[in-house]
Amino acid sequence: MLIGRLGLEKARIPHADRHGLVWLDRGRLEVEDGCLRFVTAGGGELAAGDYQIPHQALSIILLGPGSSVTHDALRLLARHGCALAAIGEGAVRFYTAPPLMPDTSALAREQVRRWADPKRRMEVARAMYAIRFDEIVRTRDIEVLRGQEGARIKRSYQLAAERHGVPWKGRNYDRNNPNAGDMPNQAINHAASAMRAAAAVAVASVGAIPQLGFVHEDSGQSFLLDIADLYRHDVTLDIAFGAASEALKTGEPVERLTRQRAARLFRQRDVIPTMIDRIKLLVGPDAPRTETANEDED
């Protein structure tokens, strides 16, 4: 893309028409002759080379470990409304991102409308549980849903432990000391942190409001927790118990193994792109509205 010659330095492509995000690591993001470039010696996902980045067509750039960025690059990204997020390996940590300031507030406004109306908020919560349970959810009582979730997640822990051959004595989590548990409990904590980071990337990418959750309520990251939980029964536990199994066999640090496994599965299963799609399906301006008037309640 020859920006100066094609006049694209003044282009303003709507976010709805952009291609989403790119992952960059182990290199330098800089500007040369009006072009955004990423120079890397290799060692990460990219082969060594000098890459021109089409920032006008992107919503967000994810900058991984071993990377640096120049002031000129930040200025160019800000001018074109392309956000930059500092992430951990494979997006298992979400360190910082400047305000997105998307070119439309449609998704955020629709999220607020659905959150502010108790009936519509319950519709979204039920849709989230339907995704997690892979079945139609009929009850409109959030406490009943949470009770169903608790029973199912206990069974999911046991099944994941059996599948990966990991001894399981039950969930034991000390919020003040997350590393105090046994190997699988520590792995679950690290895997959950990685999944929250992935959810943070997805929420930031679409300009949704992190504080307005539909199942979670009190946390300043309630919506992030809602989205991360959509993957709790399958992906998060697969990451955790797979890493715990490997750690028990090799003696390697379980946190490192969990991060590596999370990064690999995030890419293999397109976790962040599917998160973005699900956010739009649940609270986007074109999201379907669930009709509940004629349904039977449990």
UniProtKB/TrEMBL annotation:
EC number(s) reported in the record: 3.1.-.-
Pfam families: Cas_Cas1
InterPro entries recorded: Cas1, CRISPR-assoc_Cas1, CRISPR-assoc_Cas1_C, CRISPR-assoc_Cas1_ECOLI, CRISPR-assoc_Cas1_N
EC main group: hydrolase
Cofactor: Mg(2+); Mn(2+)
Source organism superkingdom: Bacteria
The entry's keywords: Antiviral defense, DNA-binding, Endonuclease, Hydrolase, Magnesium, Manganese, Metal-binding, Nuclease
GO terms of molecular function: DNA binding; DNA endonuclease activity; hydrolase activity; metal ion binding
GO biological process, alphabetically ordered: defense response to virus; maintenance of CRISPR repeat elements
Binding positions (Mn(2+)): E149, H216, D229
Family: Belongs to the CRISPR-associated endonuclease Cas1 family.
Known function: CRISPR (clustered regularly interspaced short palindromic repeat), is an adaptive immune system that provides protection against mobile genetic elements (viruses, transposable elements and conjugative plasmids). CRISPR clusters contain spacers, sequences complementary to antecedent mobile elements, and target invading nucleic acids. CRISPR clusters are transcribed and processed into CRISPR RNA (crRNA). Acts as a dsDNA endonuclease. Involved in the integration of spacer DNA into the CRISPR cassette.
Subunit annotation: Homodimer, forms a heterotetramer with a Cas2 homodimer.
PANTHER family, sorted: CRISPR-ASSOCIATED ENDONUCLEASE CAS1 (PTHR34353:SF3), CRISPR-ASSOCIATED ENDONUCLEASE CAS1 1 (PTHR34353)
NCBIfam families, per database record: cas1_ECOLI
Identification of the protein by name: CRISPR-associated endonuclease Cas1
Native organism: Rhizobium straminoryzae
Gene name of this polypeptide: cas1e
